Hints:
The protein is mainly alpha-helical. The chain folds into 2 domains: about 1-160, no CATH class; about 165-330, no CATH class. Helices cover about 45% and strands about 5% of the residues. The strands form 3 sheets. It has a two-stranded antiparallel sheet with strand order 1-2. Strand 5 and strand 6 (about 320) form a beta hairpin.
Amino acid sequence: MRSPDDRGRLVKVIPAYQLGGAGVFWCPLPRETRILVQGQLQRGPWTEYYLPFVALLVLWLIIFSSSSGAMIWFIRSTRSLPWFLSILPGLLIPVSMFPFMYWAMWRMRARVARLIVLDGCCATCGYALDGVEPASDGCTVCPECGSAWNLSIMPANSDSRTKRSEFASVFCRDDRALRIPLARQWRAGTLPGISSAVPRRFRGIIPLQRPDRETAKRAARSMGVMLLGLLAWFVLWARVGAPLLTGLHLSALATSILRVLIPAAPLPLFIALLIALSRQGTARILAAATYCPSCGNALANVPAAPDGCTVCPECGSAWRITSKGQSPPT
């Protein structure tokens, strides 16, 4: 993967998927730099990364809606469908995907390189550039690979912690907005029964306190809103979608398949949100009991950082340990 350095020369940069530094994705950067870059990437404004994908989804929706409307009009008016119209969506969707994906990957590579350089490392090979004298143009040339980087350029929103999405924080992120993997043994249980969401290892140790009940109530309200949305979708499909599907005069097999697939389309998203709520509720309880939700390490004797977060010495995830069982708003 290549990106221009600060002298405009295309060089290889460390890709974002290597920042985990596990398995075959070995990363030459120090562990502290990897954690910092990952946190900055996930703390950035959603428009910086997701806007290309939102635009792509809108374009796909326009293509799908227009082609579907044209096909329905042809079938109702002429009882036939031109062959080119039937394959047009399948051609336009993948063709439109490549420029958007290239744009998004280019932006991601440039930001990853800038954040690595901001921490004093070469974005190509990971060499520490702190002790290297800069050139007359302000760029520091890496003695290992020859890439030139300006260590004084600050990336946009590099220190912003107030713009992270509250919706994204539901998907198992710590209090510095760094996405963390909850260990498999911490994922047992369902909501709103908050006692069943407590891992079996800690059952009987962590009391069911009032703030934990408040966490359960908030999770139950979120789940209720999702259920109402799912019910509204089923009602809309029964009143509008099903009669429209019957009027297309499709084969019995095609009609039966569409009658099942279209109403069931939101179910994967509903299940994913439900799992995310369960994991985040478990993480809140463990953090309140001074256990790291990511690895289970005890955090009672670990001092807090200046921003109020307690950084786990085992896995590097950061949590605000409060007596209320939840993080204060950031």
